[in-house]
Every structure is written in C-alpha cells, then in structure tokens.
Specification:
The protein has 601 residues and is of the alpha+beta class. The chain folds into three domains: 40-282, no CATH class; 283-361, no CATH class; 453-600, Heat Shock Protein 90, CATH 3.30.565.10. The chain contains 19 helices and 16 strands. The strands form four sheets. It has a five-stranded mixed β-sheet with strand order 2-1-5-4-3, sandwiched between helices. The protein has a five-stranded mixed β-sheet with strand order 11-13-14-16-15. A hairpin with a 2-residue loop joins strand 8 and strand 9. Helix 11 (392-407) runs antiparallel to helix 12 (411-428), helix 12 (411-428) packs antiparallel against helix 13 and helix 13 packs parallel to helix 15.
C-alpha cells in the first residue's frame, strides 16, 4: 500500500493496464503465435523436402531420353560391328556410315525436342574419318570429358564439364556441357575400344528448373561442383561454380539422390519471406481481432480516465512547478474543466493565487519603487562625479598653447600640439571599444607624424591598406600598441635611420595586419619567447608578466573578439636589423559589431 501511495495516478492506471491486460495478452496470444509459427516452420520444412523430391524427379526425367538412347546403341550389334570394320577408302566409310546410322533410326531422335543435341561414336579404328557422328578415339583422348570418363573408372554416368573453344566434336564454342558417356563393351568378343558420348542441351535442361516449380532456389551438386542451379541460368558460357560459393546460412534443407551410379547432393534455400511474417499475413484477421479486443479497447478506456482527472491534476502540478522553476510567482490555471472534486480544487487554487497577488502588490510594490528611486539617485551622483573628472580642461590648455605658438610663429610646435590634442581626445574616448581599422590607422598616422617631428630626417613611415581592410573592425588601440612598441624599442634605440612599415589586407576572408620596423631589433630567441606569450595571452598571463604588458593585453583583446583559435600571431626579429609582426584574424564587419551590441543590451 505504501508503494502504491507513492505512485502517481497515471502510473497506477498504467500498472493496472499492464497487469490486467498486457501480461495476460502476451501469455495467451504469445502461446497462440508460437503454435502458428511452429506449424509454419514444419510446413516450410515439408515444402523444402518436397522440393528435393521434385528436383530429383525432374533431374531423372530430363535425362531419361538420352539414357534410353545410350542403352539402345549399347546393345546395337550392327552398329558395334560397324565400328570394328576397317575401310580401304574414305568413300567406303562415308557410304557405310550413313546407312548404318540411318538404318538404326537414331538420327530422328536429334530433332524430337528431347534435349539431345549430338551423338559421338568413338572407336580405336584409324580407318574411320573423324567427322560428324564417327570419330577416331585418338582424336578425343585429350578432351575434358574423356579424361573425366577415364578418372571415373570408365563407368556409365552423366558428366558435367566446361569446354573452352572447339573440342573437335559436335556443339559450339565455350559453354557448359552435359554428356552421357559409356564404354561400348557389350559385345566382349570385339577387341577395339569403343566409347559413346551423347550430348545434351544444357540450356534446355537448366530452363526446366525454375524457382516457381519448387518454391525456393535449389542447387544440384556433383561433388564440389554446382551443376544445375535455379540462380545460375544466365551463365551458360561461364565455368561451373563451386559449392563453397553457396551461403550456407541461407540453406534450409539438404537432400541426396543417385543417378547412373553417381551420388548428387541437392541444397534448398530457405524461402525469402520470413515464416513468422508469412504466418502473420495468413492469420492477419485473427491477429487484428485479438489486438482490437485485448489492447485497443482497454487503452481507449485508460486514456479516457486520464483525460477525466489525471491530466487536470498534472496541469495543477505544473503551475506549482513553474512557480519554483521560473521564479515568476504563482500563476492561475488558465482553464478549469468539470465540477467534481478536482475542478473545485483548481478553483480554490486560483482564488488563493489572486489573494496572494494582492498581498504582494500592497506590501512589496512600494518598496520596489523606493529602491528604484535610490538607484537612479546613485547613478546621477556617479554621472556628476564622472563629469567632474572629464579632462576637458586639458584640451583647453593644449588649445591655448597651440594658439600661443601660432602667434609667435612656432608653426611646427603648434602642429605637434594639435596632433597631441587629437591623440589625447581619441585615447580618452572609450564609448566604442571596437572601431573600424580606418579610424585606428588615422590615429596611428597622427602618432607617427608626431614621432617624425621628434626624430627628424632619421625616421620615416609607410601605411598601406586595401579598401576592403579599412572596413574591418578591431579592438581600439590594439594595432597602435604594436606600432608604439616599434617606436620606443626599435626606432628610439637606433642612432641611424629607421623606418616603420604598416600593411593591412584581406585574403581568403582573413584580415592580415603587418608591422615591420628597421630599428634596433631583437634576438631570435627573445622573439620566440615574446611570440609564445602573445599566442597564449590570457588574464593569468597578464598577472604573471612584468614586461610587454601592453602587447599581451592587445593580443588578449583581439582573441576575445576573434576567438581563441582564430587569432594567429607571428613575431620575428634580428638584432640591429629590425622586427616583423603579423596578425591574422577573421574579418569583423559593422553588422557583427551591431549584433553584439544588441545582445549586450
């Protein structure tokens, strides 16, 4: 009882449905299905056994005409003695051979549609002209069929073999052959060796074996050779396949038969249609009736009960959970259905929510308004303090100095003060942390002009940027930091002429910024150390470093907008030659910057 009390109503109903419907259904219907499947399996085995019987019967019937013909020729005294005769001239042989064969009446069997396509009478008689029906046995000793005949003990049997090219006997080129071969030794007093070969049409025999006749594919095998198969009809002109090519997993029954002294094995494949599915199809109406009575009707009743009270209780539980999960307070049930106990409970809950909201409004609303006023007041005070420290007075002083220099004719000094004021205004204006590269380069140009005034003729600079790169956005004063580093540590420490080169371009969707100076330079080892710091720039690296803080900070800011893996830094140098810096990052457009601003808002 304690276990049941801890289960939800839905689970209780499903437990009832499972124990009283599903389990009895599985036991009873499963037993019925097992009986059906067992019967279907037995029937399938019986059908495969019958397929072996029918295939062996068809096999015998297919070769009966040829076997009867071989028996007739075997006991034909005139024909056997004819093969022993020695002919003085070829013309004598031609005259006698036609009369002997036609007199026996065997030629009519070749056109009777019984599958016989040729007869060869071979004798150890060199006076026989090898052509047509009669052949000297010396002409056939090296053929495949004669070799098989010798290896089989010269017994009367069917021989299946493949001939490549002409074999000097009737029938065509490369093809599979079936022949009945037997020794003509009935008349023991005749000394010469005589052999009869009756050729049978393999294509006709193979066509008689069809899947429709047996219900499954069959393989008739002579030893390890597949001689007839319902799957192999298009391959008359290819060599016989081996038994090891058969997928044994598909074989459902193996039978045997004996014909003309040879043992043949018959393999029958399982039906392609699963016997379980075939059983279901054959008893589909009964299964549907059982499923409808035992599953569907009780399931409909369970769902109706759930719709009656379980779903409404879940809806009530959901509003409680959402109040805790989403921190939005208690919410009313949007729709109340029914006038039973559950409907009354939902109505009472809605009344409680309305009263709770009224209490929240009267107790906490005034406090929230008061807090809002206090926050606005603090923000106003901060704004006032910020305005007090705004360095406008510095700009006014610099402007007064510039005007004084102009009055005295010190134009160069006035120009320096004007650029210094522009740099000062730009450096203290941080309303935009990410700016176009064009704006950054303008700031750098003013800075380098001041440095040119300071160093005189021994310093020069060059700034090149393609139009597409000027539209890209970078963190403010990052590139400036690297240029300033070149001035302070490169140009200032070199007594001779020095130059700073700045080049910006866009290649393959990447913004490439290059800064190169011909100042004092650095050793390759020092450059490698600084490059490693730039690549792993992070807040912890800033805290650890006592040098190059500005460069590491700029690298960190670039990585923050470009992505840890997308920003690449290359720093190279040589003492008394100069240094080279390359920054590669994705192109950040104006739309990307506006999108980030909206997300932050």
């Amino acid at each position: 009882m304690g276990y049941l009390n801890n289960l939800s109503l839905r689970k209780k109903l499903w437990l009832l449905y499972t124990c009283c419907v599903i389990i009895p259904l599985v036991l009873t219907d499963g037993l019925i299905a097992a009986v059906f499947i067992h019967d279907a399996k037995k029937e399938m085995e019986k059908n495969m056994e019958m397929a072996v019987f029918n295939a062996s019967l068809d096999f015998r019937n297919a070769f009966t005409p040829a076997d009867n013909l071989s028996n007739s020729i075997y006991i034909d005294e005139d024909l056997n003695y004819f093969l022993e005769r020695r002919f003085s001239a070829n013309s004598d042989f031609y005259t006698e051979s036609r009369s002997a064969y036609q007199r026996a009446g065997y030629s009519t069997l070749l056109s009777a549609g019984n599958g016989i396509i040729g007869v060869a009478l071979c004798a150890d008689n060199n006076s026989i002209v090898s052509a047509g029906t009669y052949w000297s046995i010396d002409r056939v000793r090296d053929t495949q069929w004669y070799t098989d005949f010798e290896n089989n003990g010269r017994t009367n049997a069917l021989y299946f073999y493949f001939v490549e090219g002409e074999d000097n006997l009737p029938t065509g080129t490369n093809s599979r052959r079936i022949s009945i071969v037997r020794a003509l030794d009935h008349f023991g007093e005749l000394p010469s060796e005589k052999v009869l070969r009756i050729d049978i049409d393999y294509a006709k025999i193979s066509e008689e074996f069809s899947v429709s006749r047996y219900g499954s594919d069959i393989y008739i095998c002579d030893g390890d050779t597949i001689v007839i198969s319902t799957k192999d009809k298009p391959n008359y002109f290819q060599s016989f396949k081996r038994v090891n090519t058969i997928d044994r997993k598909t074989i459902g029954y193996v039978g045997h038969m004996n014909y003309l002294g040879k043992e043949y094995t018959i393999y029958v494949e399982k039906p392609s249609e699963n016997y379980f599915l075939s059983t279901i199809k054959s008893h589909a109406f009964l299964f549907m009736l059982l499923v409808t009575i035992n599953v569907i009707l009780p399931l409909i009743l369970v769902n109706l009960i759930n719709s009656s009270f379980t779903n409404r209780l879940q809806k009530l539980s959901y509003v409680f959970d959402s109040a805790q999960r989403d921190k939005v307070g208690l919410q009313e049930v949007d729709s109340i259905q029914g006038n039973d106990e559950i409907g009354q409970l939902m109505e009472g809950y809605n009344n409680l929510v309305r009263r709770n909201r009224q209490l929240i409004k009267t107790i906490y609303e005034d406090r929230i308004v008061h807090q809002k006023v206090e926050i606005e007041k603090q923000q106003a005070e901060l704004l006032s303090m910020r305005m007090q420290i705004n360095p406008h007075f510095i700009f006014n002083v610099l402007e007064n100095l510039r005007m004084n220099c102009i009055v005295k004719g010190e134009n160069e000094t006035a120009a320096m003060i004007e650029r210094l004021a522009a740099l000062e205004r730009e450096s203290v204006d941080w309303k935009d942390d990410i700016i176009p590269l064009s704006k950054e380069l303008e700031f750098i140009r003013n800075y380098l002009k001041l440095q040119a005034m300071r160093y005189g003729d021994r310093f020069s600079f060059s700034i090149n940027a393609d139009p597409e790169s000027l539209k890209a956005y970078i963190p403010k004063l990052t590139l400036t930091t690297f240029v300033e580093n070149s001035c302070v540590h490169g140009v200032e420490r070199k007594s001779s002429n020095a130059m700073i080169l700045i080049d910006c371009s866009v290649k393959d969707g990447k913004l490439i910024m290059e800064v190169e100076d011909t100042g004092a330079g650095m050793s390759p080892a020092s450059c490698a150390v600084l490059e490693a710091k730039m690549r792993r720039a992070s807040f912890s690296e800033l805290q650890r470093s006592s040098q190059h803080i500005g460069m590491i900070n700029s690298c960190l800011r670039i990585k923050m907008i470009a992505g840890e893996e997308n920003a690449k830094f290359t720093f190279e140098g040589e003492e008394n030659v100069g240094v080279y810096l390359r920054i590669e990052m994705p192109v950040i457009s104006e739309s990307d910057v506006e999108g980030e601003s909206k997300e932050d808002a």
